[in-house]
TrEMBL record:
Coiled coil: none annotated. It comes from Nyctibius bracteatus. It is found in: Cytoplasm; Nucleus. The keyword Signal does not apply. It comes from the Eukaryota. This is CCDB1 protein. Residues 206-310 form the Cyclin-D1-binding protein 1-like C-terminal domain. The gene is Ccndbp1. The lineage of its organism: Eukaryota, Metazoa, Chordata, Craniata, Vertebrata. PANTHER family: CYCLIN D1-BINDING PROTEIN 1, CYCLIN-D1-BINDING PROTEIN 1. GO terms for cellular component: cytoplasm; nucleus. Its main location: cytoplasm.
Length: 348
């Protein structure tokens, strides 16, 4: 088998790539601005439909520019320095247009919506940086697997615009649904652990020399199990709470006035604290269990749930017909928390 000689990179080819290096730097500057920058507030009347049309258009153009850039560096003859400069300029302009349109979206349209649009915009810019870097590090005349993957990554990021929620009500519903998914997973995992977590050493005779089974760390005692059932009650209340809040946001949530938009953001912000609090409680429930840590984590979760229910009750998403379940779940949280306090009283 004859060895294939890797052609030396000609100075002209190196020069042709110089604009790509500059492009990388320019795109990084855009990325930093998108991540940290503030929106332009109300220079002219803001129209949501016009914003979405413009954003969709800029994402589409960026996707096309990624294709052009990738193709130019996937075959011979090599792209000239002039063509490369033109390609780089087009890419930079497309990405700047995406960032500029993102800046049109005022905070008044909702911080939850704005964060989702910012994340989508960031992904497009990051994708383009990655593609440019991949081309710079690849052999000159071949389309590498990495380059194909990077190009596909930009396409996917650009297609995301069609799935973005169109107003803050939809954005908050989407955020709540994501939280609910995480809490459901944590609850199922804990339920499995409880089923599998019978004393795994119960069929082993006591260690003759030690006089007891040494591995106390891998199973729950009777006292632990009593405490666990109330903790599970609190986790189930978290799931029920998110499910109900998501239901009323979908049914009654509106994003027509600044007050409604702000109320929805408040709900999303506090609901975002549920899943990390559920995770912390779940982690502290595994053996060997420190009952005091469990009590503290349970109290934190209970406090977050009470806040979510309070904010829901005082917002426009909760008409009088929905107040019953708010009351019921508040009672369920208190009931489980009181039991946890009783079981752990001796630990204080």
């Amino acid at each position: 088998v004859r060895e294939r000689k890797v052609p030396a990179v000609a100075p002209a080819a190196m020069e042709a790539r110089e604009p790509l290096r500059e492009l990388c730097g320019a795109l990084r500057a855009v990325l930093a601005r998108v991540r940290e920058g503030e929106p332009g507030e109300g220079r002219e009347p803001f129209e949501l439909p016009r914003f979405w049309d413009a954003l969709g258009q800029t994402f589409k153009v960026t996707s096309q520019e990624a294709t052009k850039l990738s193709l130019a560096f996937s075959r011979l003859p090599l792209t000239s320095a002039e063509d490369c400069r033109k390609l780089s300029e087009d890419v930079q302009n497309a990405v700047l247009a995406v960032a500029t349109v993102y800046y049109w979206l005022p905070k008044g349209q909702g911080t939850t919506l704005r964060k989702m649009v910012r994340d989508a915009t960031t992904e497009v810019v990051e994708g383009m940086i990655q593609l440019t870097e991949t081309i710079l590090s690849a052999p000159l005349e071949s389309l590498s697997q990495e380059q194909l993957i990077s190009t596909g990554g930009v396409w996917e990021a650009c297609e995301q615009v069609s799935n973005l929620p169109r107003d803050n009500q939809a954005a908050v519903a989407s955020a709540l649904a994501a939280c609910l998914g995480v809490v459901k997973d944590a609850l199922e995992e804990m339920e499995r652990a409880l089923v599998e977590g019978q004393d795994p050493y119960s069929d082993i005779m006591e260690d003759e020399e030690l006089g007891f089974r040494g591995n106390r760390d891998t199973y729950w005692s009777e006292a632990d199990r009593k405490l666990l059932s109330s903790c599970m009650g609190l986790m189930k209340a978290s799931k029920a709470c998110l499910k109900k809040v998501l239901g009323v946001v979908k049914a009654y949530g509106k994003a027509d006035s600044p007050e409604q938009i702000a109320q929805l953001d408040d709900l999303a912000d506090i609901a975002n604290e549920i899943s990390p609090s559920v995770d912390e409680l779940a982690l502290s429930m595994y053996p060997p269990m420190n009952q005091l840590a469990v009590r503290l984590n349970a109290a934190k979760l209970a406090s977050v749930l009470k806040k979510v229910l309070e904010i829901t009750k005082t917002s426009h998403v909760c008409p009088p017909s929905e107040e019953g379940w708010v009351q019921f779940l508040t009672g369920a949280v208190d009931h489980n928390m009181n039991k946890i306090k009783n079981f752990t009283q001796g630990q204080l």
